[in-house]
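hey so u asked for the seq, here:
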Amino acid sequence: MLTAGAAVVLVTAVLGWVMAGALGLTGPATTSGATSAALPSAPVQADGPGPTSRRIVDISGAPARPAEGSASAVDAAEPDPTPVAPSAPVPAPTPAPQPTLEPARDPVPGVRPGEACPAEGDTGLTKSGKATVCAATPGNGETRWQRA
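ran it, structure tokens below
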């Protein structure tokens, strides 16, 4: 009895063999050097792989100098006598809008130091009028009212 894994391997091998036969990839080997028309082949190069251009390029980074007496050498030596008209003034960029700040919240009345508070940075007042601030407690990160 075949296991499921062995059955999968057997079916895959049979399908591969059938597809190879359908594509003409199976059959007797030829000894004459002829290849099957179904197989791709690259054209043979007489000179071998490599660049086809025989130009030599200088990549040293030195700029090309114009030959003396050429038109480009004369043009480079003489400044252009025609003045250039100033272009239209460029408008100043508009400043980016300033971010709006949240309005200051009124202090929460009647808080007790050590109790949980809604948001870090909020301010509160105890019953006796002392200022408190909502801050994260070290270690666990819970926000609690603390004396300012």
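Helices lie at 4-22, 71-77. The CA atoms of residues 112 and 126 lie 6 Å apart.
lmk if thats what u needed
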